[in-house]
Amino acid sequence: MAKTALKLDEMIDGEALRRELTALTLADSGDGSTPEIRASVLQKLRETLAAGHRKAEAMLMEDGGGTACAARLSHLMDEVIRALYDFAVTHVYRSKNPSAGERMTVVAVGGYGRGTLAPGSDIDLLFLLPYKQTPWGEQVVEYLLYMLWDLGLKVGHATRNIDECVRLSRTDITIRTAVLEARYLWGDTGLFDELVKRFDKEVVSSTGAEYVQAKLAERDERHRKVGASRYLVEPNVKDGKGGLRDLHTLFWIAKYYYRVRTGEELVEKGVFTRKEYLQFRKAEDFLWAVRCHLHFQTGKAEERLHFDIQRDIAERLGYTSHPGLSAVERFMKHYFLVAKEVGDLTRIFCAALEEEQAKHVPGFNRLLQSFQRRRRKLAGTSDFIVDNDRINIADDGVFERDPVNLLRLFWFADKHGLEFHPDALKLVTRSLKLIDRDLRRDREANRLFMDVMTSGRNPELNLRRLNEAGVLGKLIPDFGKIVAMMQFNMYHHYTVDEHLLRCIGVLAEIERGDGEKAHPLAHKLMPGLKPQREILYTALLLHDIAKGRPEDHSEAGAKIARKLCPHMGFSAAETETIAWLVEHHLLMSMTAQTRDLNDRKTIDDFADVVQSVERLKMLLVLTVCDIRGVGPGVWNGWKGQLLRTLYYETELLLTGGFSEVSRAKRAEQAREQLAEALSGWPERERDNILKLHYDNYLLTMDLEDQVRDAEFIREADANGKVFSAGVTMRAFEAVTEITVLTPDHPRLLSVVAGACAAAGANIVDAQIFTTTDGRALDTILIGREFDRDEDEQRRGVRVGRLIEDVLSGRSELPEMIEKRARPKRGHKTFRIEPRAEIRNTLSNRFSVIEVEGLDRPGLLSEITGAISDLSLDITSAHITTFGEKVIDTFYVTDLTGQKVENPTRQEAIRDRLIATLGGPSRAQKLKLAAE
To answer: Which of 698, 749, 697, 744 has the alpha carbon at shortest distance from 874?
Structure first.
């Protein structure tokens, strides 16, 4: 790693700053305590810091040195504090004959103590005073702190004598870490030297094991709070897993246990190899560069790489786009590879340290109450042993003798439930070059891999171990290409490889029977898919393996599957099934969420692609795992309900059980069933309800819903309500149903959608029906917000009341949307080409309009309003949101109830909808292209 020159002398001239501050006092005979002088000093220091920050940012843009930038900013702050201290003791609180108690040491601690600062970092200071203190010390400390605060700095501080530092360090790990990082800044050197000496002798020398355990526990808790995965797509650069704090924790532990003051000394003591130490330095340099750019760009101490800043940081770091990957995706892939490297080295280091501790400290092992060092043979092999309940290599030639042992190591670890010895992990890392074409084609190696991937114990953990060790990416080079790859959108929560591993974990959960409540159909089908379990696991591992390529990732992934699967031991028929599942892994999800499942043509088209019940079952399970593996909160009961409906309707068709009775006959049967269900009503009221509904309503809605709607209409009429909204809880599907009864008019859905947007309610589906007396009976499904039914019921009533207010004219919709609806963070960062398509092949009775674009508050209201303005009737709407992208599907007819067939009119509809989405029309595009 090329070391970036620090150029500290270019940042600030400390002596010149002192002279300038002194010059400010000359007019007042050297007295620096007046308000006027204080204000002048503040202004000078403020200008110095601002100029220094500008220099640091310019140098960072020029040389890219992250650690160097942090060191420059620390040096800038050092010189400012030193000059301010000298000014205070010389011109403000000067002691002509200082006693032994009138001395002080200013010590940098914490992150500042390491000699590194980000632009927005806190300044952590320890004011070290003699045992016998005087008012002079308190006055100087108070002056320094108020000046630093007035400069706008966040200062963490403590004022203690040496005895207090030592005593508090024994009982408080945070204080102990601060003192461990203590760096002399200014003042009396004797006090600092005594602190370092006593801290090492009285605290550090006898508490190594205790400190290591405490810092590892602290790290685990920090990871839990900010996100347990290092592959979150909006990572925390400072505190996230694989971030700067993980590196700092490593150095704290190493410095404490081995009692050194610098990282270089750790190489001399054999803790790190030179290569490992340089890897840490390189990772630290990259993370510091990202963090400094993040602070400079945002103008504050922002530690999370939010979507809305990632593109700017990528540009500042000089990343460019490549085919299939944008500049920001290339930057984030680099970020996650660095985070992965930090995790790999941290794991090896901590395991090695634990081994070192175990030699001397009985009971150190955090997992076992009583720790006894022991080595034993491992049944079935002479190449591996069990060393302190970890699998280890028998000798350094294990992998050279037989490269298949690279897979056997993980196979035995899984079989016996063993952790990995650091020596084994180090040798794996050094032996990755042994994974070549011959090993990838080796039958035994592939059998071992399949056993690990489909293990009944914890296949997700096994594959993550293989991935983090670098074996998985070498064994399947196409998988290696998507390691640490992120997709720049708000839908996917993890990198591509992490998503695939989590999908495997969901499948294992379903197979164990743990997922019955979340996805009952998949749970029910899984036992019958036992003969196909290896096919399912492999399809899940490969379904996104072609992400980041210019071509469609589903089709490219199918080609990869056809190439890989024969070598993995699959027959030609099994290979084709896996390739089909990979190619169509989005089909069921998109059909369920964006199509009208009550339309027979939807089921026909889907069944034509699926062709067999066995494929249908596997695709259902794969789809559930894929959605669940995207991230927390993505799966919900409504999506599950849609998938179940699509599955059962398609199964009926594929098994020949789909009804061939005419539409008119089925509608008549449905009307008779409703009449029977309302048999307790007065005959006149029952007949009035039966006459209200057209056939489409009776064929679409379940009998239970029809009865509920009948009661709703009856009550509204009895109370003389022109506008009425009812609420029904659907907790299992995680949606709330709003039923609206109102005089029909063309823009009704637009008004309802706008009211929902103003209420912060996310519409996921809508069914629009018209009664024979000219009223609209619309069913709107909104995403559930609260866990408790009573809370959600109150919310539903509030949304319903808001809809009534808008329909009755009591509230103005545009004002409500502007006032109440706020765009989600990061949405404006994304660019999605607006798209609008009109297709007449997806339904026998309706034209299907599909729009795609960047989501924003009130968009659905605008789109449905535009459709109404185009003299189209909406029969059903299906709203699907993938992070920042929305895909809305509308089943429509013209005002005569016919499909839209005229090409000119279709083009006009497309242009209007694309303009509503915020993009240029086709005519405008042609004009721009001509120009």
So the answer is: 749
Assess contact for 140 and 104: CB atoms under 8 A: yes
> With 0-12 CB in 10 A as exposed, 13-18 as middle and 19+ as buried, what is 471?
buried
Closest CA to 120 of 304, 308, 335: 304
Helix-strand-coil split of the chain, %, nearest 5: 60, 10, 30
- Residue 750 CB neighbours (<10 A): 23
The model's confidence at residue 363, banded by pLDDT at 50, 70 and 90, is: very low
The answer to whether the beta carbons of residues 392 and 385 sit under 8 Å apart is yes
What type of residue sits at position 799? V
Q: Considering only CA atoms, which of 849, 840, 912, 841 is closest in space to residue 876?
A: 849
Burial class (CB in 10 A: 0-12, 13-18, 19+), 192: buried
Cα separation, 739 vs 767, in Å, equals 10
Cβ atoms of 509 and 515 closer than 8 Å: yes
Helix axes 35-63, 66-87, angle to 10 degrees: 170
pLDDT for residue 3: 65
What pLDDT is stored for residue 1 in this prediction? 44
At residue 488, the pLDDT reads 64
C-alpha–C-alpha distance, residues 580 and 542, integer Å: 11
**Per-residue model confidence as pLDDT tens digits over 701-738:** 889 889 999 999 999 999 988 888 888 888 887 888 88
Cα distance between residue 264 and residue 278, in whole Å? 10
Residue 700 to residues 165, 396, 746, Cα–Cα distance (Å): 75, 69, 21
Which helix (H) or strand (E) is 384 found in, with range? strand 384-387
Q: CATH for 8-206?
A: 3.30.460.10
In this predicted model, what pLDDT tens digit does every residue of 66-109 receive, in sequence order?
A: 999 999 999 999 999 999 999 999 888 887 666 666 789 999 99
Sole residue written with tokens 């309009």: 849
Buried b (16+ CB within 10 A) or exposed e, 809-820: eeeebeebbeee
* pLDDT, tens only, 388-432: 888 999 999 999 999 999 999 999 999 999 988 888 988 998 899
Which tokens is 435 given?
């994974």
278 closest CA partner among 264, 289, 268: 264
Q: Where are the domains of the chain?
A: 8-206, 210-360, 376-445, 484-660, 685-922
Backbone φ and ψ of 123, nearest 5°: -105, 110
Distances 183 to 255, 261, 447, 637 between C-alpha atoms, Å? 14, 10, 56, 56
10 Å Cβ neighbour count for 88?
A: 21
Per-residue pLDDT at 142: 93
Judging by DSSP bridges, how do beta strands 123-129 and 155-161 pair with one another?
Answer: parallel
Task: Give CA–CA dist 37/87, Å, rounded.
Answer: 11
Rounded CA gap, 851 and 835, in Å? Answer: 6
Residue 451: is its pLDDT beyond 70? yes
Q: Can you tell me the distance from the alpha carbon of 31 to that of 93, in angstroms, rounded to the nearest whole number?
A: 9
- Predicted confidence (pLDDT) at residue 587 exceeds the cutoff of 90: yes
- Joined together, the tokens standing for residue 568 give 């993995």
- Indicate the pTM of the whole model: 0.79
Rounded to 5 degrees, φ, ψ at 592 are: -65, -40
Q: At what angle do helices 600-610 and 587-594 cross, to 10 degrees?
A: 180
As a whole number, mean pLDDT of residues 519-547 equals 94
Q: Shortest CA distance to 84 belongs to which of 133, 116, 132, 37?
A: 37
50 token code pair? 């601002």
Instruction: Quote the CATH superfamily of domain 210-360.
Output: Nucleotidyltransferases  domain 2 (1.20.120.330)
pLDDT tens sequence across 55-66: 999 999 999 999
Q: How confident is the model at residue 372 (pLDDT cuts 50, 70, 90)?
A: very low
